[in-house]
């Protein structure tokens, strides 16, 4: 299908071929409407002619397109053009976990982190009744932020029907990673994915696969009959706690494994620390190249008795498995990038009377971070805080305007520039520091956003004739990806306060004085006074858009300061003011994991569980929550954190507020 290069498939212009396998070809393509590159997986001609396959492809891919998780490669579109079915996914150049193994470039801490992220992704999919069936390093992509992106959900299930393997005792997969029950031809369930991910963890922490043999048939039978070698016999530097996790995940009886992927992920999070201090895994042996034509080999002596119980259909199933393993094993990898590290920034002793203005609160992995005018502050689950004075490390001063806790565990911090930092137990390690001289479109970064593809956007006041919105594409900051000189923006003061990516792909921009902008991939729409953003008659300041949030039904909300809380009405194309217990000034809005909507303002914190129809008062100025709250976040324990522009952070345990910094 290389002749597709240069052609248009649906709405996508094919740029180049980036991957080739027996069951699909992957292309890099450009989507003009959204101004972005995508990856398109298309089927070979002989499968495209099969009407039943196309129907199955459409059915299964529409199911997996509904998966939305930070560690699952998103599916943007499914279509058919000129008889060719195709699947459109996020395009990423970070390579795969298989590439890292082959390059001997996978440290122990990174291996555990990536497998933990895949476990989280599987837990999400399993809750929705979707089993992957083909977990392996080649299907774990690495995003631009270094996080795992699990791909190829549902592909194995689609292929089962294509190869007439849907009868009892037949299953598809990759022999090196197949669970014993899959080899036996029994239906795969969530625990089969857990076993396969356990194999990935074994391989990535010891440097070798648990079972190796000359033929796929022999490998598959070893999963059933051969005892698992203890991982620490191969790599003695592995912690015993990690070995226990591997053995639990790879138990031959599904009932003896982790019963959910969430349990697997939790076990990895609770490992003895510090894992990162241990050496990287030993060198990884070369991958065995399977022949194009496979014949059954005699089973090893220990496995002969087992074969008699499952023959003759097991031999046929394993031959089909071997064939599919060859077809699925071919892939094209991309180079990985290596970042250099800088000296660490130590934590200062946080004064008990610190009264810094708090511009943003975020929570990641049970750690709460606050961007304040006195630096960056970190709290653990014990509510003990540390202050990091960023003026000592690249920034012009201590005034931090915004912070993003990225999915790879790093921080992006904005103020007089952008710092990319990696937290450790007591320090922050600066990975890179950027200013307007490095391509940023603003000298003072007031807002940062991590996009759905893991990349970072920055916004702030405009400087000279440079667009105030910048995008870090993994290598450099760019200001040329959005047409900021469009006629729709003429005469506007493009002082950016907030950036938000909605679930429909549109980018929303909150301005300091001139309302709201929306970029839908084709053009800009400006929302001003005529679209619901007029100032109240008694207002003493401009409409300053500070935060956006999207509720569980897809409705967009904006905290608009003097204009209060706004709800977007797409049918009318305007913003509607929503009363929140009579509060006139709303500076913060957030959607929490339980889908409740929380807002904060000059004198209150309130929440709604029914889409903003009713509001419950959660805190007032006289309840230790403080005044002029501008940012809200919720941690894993369900506690709500609030940061005040007038200085201070408070935490709400569901009953009362506790001031941590005032």
What does this structure look like?
- With 662 residues, this protein is an alpha+beta fold.
- It is 20% helix and 28% strand.
- The strands form nine sheets. A six-stranded antiparallel sheet has the order 1-2-3-4-6-5, covered by helices on one side. Strands 9-17-16-15-14 form a five-stranded antiparallel sheet, with no helix packed on it. Strands 10-11-12-13 form a four-stranded antiparallel sheet, with no helix packed on it.
- A hairpin with a 4-residue loop joins strand 2 and strand 3 (25-31).
- The longest helix is centred in the N-terminal third of the chain and has 20 residues, at 108-127.
Count of discrete structural domains: 4
Are there runs of 5+ residues with pLDDT below 50, and where? 164-171, 276-354
Helices, by number, come to 13
CATH architecture term of the largest domain: Orthogonal Bundle
**Helical content, roughly?**
10-25%
Biggest sheet, spatial arrangement of strands: 1-2-3-4-6-5
Distance from N terminus to C terminus (CA atoms, Å) equals 64 Å
Largest sheet: 6 strands, antiparallel
The rough form would be described as: globular
Name the beta content range.
25-35%
How many strands?
A: 37
What is the C-alpha radius of gyration, as a whole number of Å? 27 Å
Instruction: Using the coordinates shown, work out and report the CATH topology of the largest domain.
Output: Transferase(Phosphotransferase), domain 1
What is the CATH class of the largest domain? Mainly Alpha
CATH homology superfamily of the largest domain:
Transferase(Phosphotransferase) domain 1
Mean pLDDT: 80
Structural class: alpha+beta
């Amino acid at each position: 299908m290389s002749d597709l290069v240069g052609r248009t498939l649906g709405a996508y212009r094919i740029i180049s071929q980036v991957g080739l396998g027996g069951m699909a070809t992957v292309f890099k393509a450009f989507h003009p409407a959204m101004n972005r590159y995508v990856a398109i997986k298309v089927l070979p001609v002989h499968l495209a002619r099969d009407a039943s396959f196309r129907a199955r492809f459409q059915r299964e891919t529409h199911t997996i397109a509904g998966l939305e998780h930070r560690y699952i490669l998103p599916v943007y579109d499914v279509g058919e053009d000129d008889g060719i079915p195709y699947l459109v996914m996020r395009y990423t150049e970070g390579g795969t976990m298989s590439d890292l193994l082959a390059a001997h470039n996978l440290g122990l801490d990174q291996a555990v982190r990536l497998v933990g992220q895949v476990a989280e992704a599987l837990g999400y999919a399993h809750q929705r009744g979707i089993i992957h069936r083909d977990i392996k390093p080649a299907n774990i992509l690495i995003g631009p932020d270094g996080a795992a992106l699990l791909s190829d959900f549902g592909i194995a299930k689609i292929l089962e029907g294509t190869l007439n393997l849907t009868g009892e005792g037949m299953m598809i997969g990759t022999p090196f990673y197949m669970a014993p029950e899959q080899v036996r031809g029994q239906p795969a369930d969530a625990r089969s994915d857990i076993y396969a991910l356990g194999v990935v963890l074994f391989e990535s922490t010891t440097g070798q696969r648990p079972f190796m043999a000359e033929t796929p048939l022999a490998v598959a039978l070893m999963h059933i009959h051969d005892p698992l070698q203890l991982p620490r016999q191969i790599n003695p530097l592995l912690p015993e706690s990690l070995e226990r996790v591997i053995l639990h995940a790879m138990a031959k009886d599904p009932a003896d494994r982790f019963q959910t992927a969430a349990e697997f992920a939790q076990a990895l999070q609770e490992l003895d620390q510090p894992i990162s201090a241990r050496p990287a895994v030993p060198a990884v042996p070369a991958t065995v190249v399977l022949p194009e034509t496979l014949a059954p080999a005699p089973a090893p002596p220990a496995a002969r008795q087992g074969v008699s119980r499952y023959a003759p259909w097991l031999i046929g199933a394993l031959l089909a498995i071997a064939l599919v393993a060859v077809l699925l094993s071919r892939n094209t990898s991309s180079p990985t990038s290596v970042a250099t590290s800088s000296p660490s920034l130590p934590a200062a002793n946080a004064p008990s009377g610190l009264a810094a203005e708090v511009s943003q609160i975020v929570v990641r992995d049970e750690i709460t971070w606050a961007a304040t005018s006195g630096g960056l502050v970190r709290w653990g689950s014990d509510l003990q805080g540390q202050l990091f004075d960023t003026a000592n490390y690249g920034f012009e001063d201590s005034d931090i305007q915004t912070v993003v806790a990225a999915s790879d565990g790093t921080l992006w911090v904005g103020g007089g520039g952008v710092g990319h930092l990696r937290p450790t137990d007591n320090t922050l390690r600066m990975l890179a520091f950027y200013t307007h001289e490095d391509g940023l479109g603003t000298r003072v970064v007031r807002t940062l956003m991590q996009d759905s593809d893991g990349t970072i956007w920055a916004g702030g006041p405009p400087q000279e004739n440079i667009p105030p919105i910048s995008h870090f594409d993994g290598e450099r900051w760019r200001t040329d990806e959005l047409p900021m000189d469009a006629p729709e923006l003429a005469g506007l003061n493009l002082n950016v306060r907030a950036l938000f990516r909605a679930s429909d792909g549109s980018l929303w921009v909150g301005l300091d004085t001139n309302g709201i902008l929306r970029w839908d991939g084709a053009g800009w729409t400006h929302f001003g006074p005529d679209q619901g953003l007029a100032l109240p008659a008694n207002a003493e300041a401009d409409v300053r858009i500070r935060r956006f949030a999207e509720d569980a039904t897809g409705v967009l909300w904006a905290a608009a300061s003097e204009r209060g809380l706004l709800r977007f009405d797409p049918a009318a194309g305007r913003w509607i003011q929503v009363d929140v217990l009579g509060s006139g000034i709303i500076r913060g809005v957030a959607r929490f994991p339980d889908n409740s909507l929380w807002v904060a303002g000059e004198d209150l914190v309130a929440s709604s569980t029914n889409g903003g129809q009713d509001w419950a008062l959660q805190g007032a100025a006289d309840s230790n929550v403080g005044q002029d709250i501008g940012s809200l976040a919720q941690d894993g324990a369900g506690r709500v954190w609030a940061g005040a522009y007038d200085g201070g952070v408070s935490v709400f345990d569901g009953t009362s507020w506790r001031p941590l910094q005032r």
